[in-house]
């Protein structure tokens, strides 16, 4: 123990000495900053930065020593005793826990604050740049989240200090770090920013903008927008086409070889899919999915490359992936910029929105300016961006006090649409056709349904916005053109959208195909639910041992099929649909089991003698019955019925209970234990059956197949098939020639034909025979409905 204390003290002393040295260095640099000894200060800042770099190099090759030096001794001691509590302390009091790291960063912050106070702009600027460099380095390595967030908090503090003092470093601290670290890492093949920190960077970037907008620092805001448009680095514009260059490397030299490869692996189809998906990559999940798809495609063609083609392919692959990553970052940025616009609307800063909309291409400009588009430029882009944000799992919203952002999301969406629409001239037939002939972009069914539900509220909101004349003027709208922009364009466009979205949903419904995976899952759920609920079958098989399985034998069973044949909405079996159809397989399985049990019970009841409650015990006292009987409580709870009877013992009161799922206990009479089962029938009546188990009968299970049916559709005891009605020509014609009543109600034959395109035919069938005993003995005691 003493040795351990000495070791801990030695570590503490080293850490204490290191931190005191840093603080001493900070004292000197603060003093020299006031004296404007800039070269000495800049050298000192570089030394602190180098120390931090060495610390994190130690993290890689000597992690134990790194932890001992970085973490406070109090934290390490707590971590040894209670890991969970230590993690809580680390989360809420990061600076104290990361004592050496915090001490090093704080010296740079001290120098920065002194530089601002003494108006030493050069030192202030370089201090911020050192902080950003450290953030950049740490964000290239995974699992540095605590350190990264700690620096992001410091940058937020620096920005506030700079803005309050109107120091020029506010432009670097408030704007440049986000774009330089996230986007510039792809320039000149630098080490890549680790995307696991992107959400954290987004959070602090947006919070900085919130502060700037809330405190009305318009000049800083303009610098942010300027930086995003003019200084953003995206991989070269030719990069998108390189996916085709990559895929056609073999085609360029050997057409026959490529043709053969295309026939085997659908090269052209895969290239087309990869190319079309690039523009849609706006989440980390989609990015990883695209890279996985590319890697899978690469595996199909790489063995066909020559050595020279392989070198070219490696180079192209890196360029393609860099472009895709930068495209993802750009698409992510577009979402943030949209929310910036929403926030400016919430804070009643229309001039900020106007600058965002018009900086790149002012309405009075005589030239077309280069730079990145950070707001949507056409109707498709506005619609897609809004619904991507609305349905995104990431947090692209804000709350201040008790205020929420949903209302302002909708308003900004409509204003952005109006901004795009005002540039479409009604007098030009070609331009007007952009509204009249507008067709929705390819949106998934959830977006379409969301739009379908909300479109009426958008139309109502658009009418309200038209009356906010002061707001519209500040946003750059001409008051004389409000009727044209809002009534003839925006509201007309929304009505067109409403019509189009209904058609899109219907087309997806008719042309969509059922999923084999959904069908397979459905079938397994049917089986699981069926056997969970098939009480009488369970008694036949596991208690009476009176079950004859003839599934493998010749199908000589002449009985009719028993089961379910039903027409359902085929969307039940789509991979994606806006309606949740619930647990259809579970429901059908339960219904099958209940129907089967009802059949058996009805057959038994037909031959039972009705008795009264007074006769119940007398019947059981009969020596010929008592030791061979079972009691079935049908739609009734034995525990409640026998609650005043000392003869009934529930399964909770005994140790020798039967392993049958419907078993509830024993009715004990004259030392004999008569098993009691709780079973259910679709009939409403409640009753008890006393049946001699030797005369219960036998369940004979036969193959469910009829002549000509596919053996592949047999699962366990069932023939199960799910097919689209109109994919089976014979089935569709059969329904149209002899339409059932439900189909006749749809309309004429054409309407019936269209309706059947949305339907699926479900069959779940079995064949069995209930062979009754010739010497059946049974009694029924009714409890009423």
Word description of this protein:
The structure is a single chain. The longest helix is centred in the middle third of the chain and has 40 residues, at 307-346. Helix 1 packs parallel to helix 7 (99-117). The strands form 2 sheets. A 7-stranded mixed beta sheet has the order 3-13-8-4-7-6-5. Strands 1, 2, 9, 10, 11 and 12 form a 6-stranded mixed beta sheet that branches. Strand 6 (663-669) and strand 7 (672-679) form a beta hairpin. The chain is extended. The model is unreliable at 1-6 (pLDDT under 50). It contains 33 helices and 13 strands. With 785 residues, the protein is of the alpha+beta class.
How would the blueprint of this fold be written?
Elements: H1 2-34, H2 38-61, H3 63-70, H4 73-81, H5 83-92, H6 94-97, H7 99-117, H8 121-138, H9 145-164, H10 169-182, H11 198-214, H12 218-230, H13 242-247, H14 255-265, H15 267-278, H16 284-301, H17 307-346, H18 350-358, H19 379-390, H20 406-421, H21 429-436, H22 445-466, H23 469-474, H24 482-511, H25 516-533, H26 535-543, E1 547-550, E2 562-569, H27 584-606, E3 609-611, H28 616-621, H29 623-626, E4 629-634, H30 638-641, E5 648-650, E6 663-669, E7 672-679, E8 686-692, E9 698-702, E10 714-715, E11 718-724, H31 729-737, H32 741-744, H33 749-756, E12 759-771, E13 778-784
Parallel strand pairs: 1-9, 3-13, 4-7
Antiparallel strand pairs: 2-12, 4-8, 5-6, 6-7, 8-13, 9-12, 10-11, 11-12
Helix pairs in contact: 1-2, 1-7, 2-3, 2-7, 2-8, 4-5, 7-8, 7-9, 8-9, 8-10, 9-10, 9-11, 10-11, 10-12, 11-17, 15-16, 17-18, 17-20, 19-20, 20-22, 20-24, 22-24, 25-27
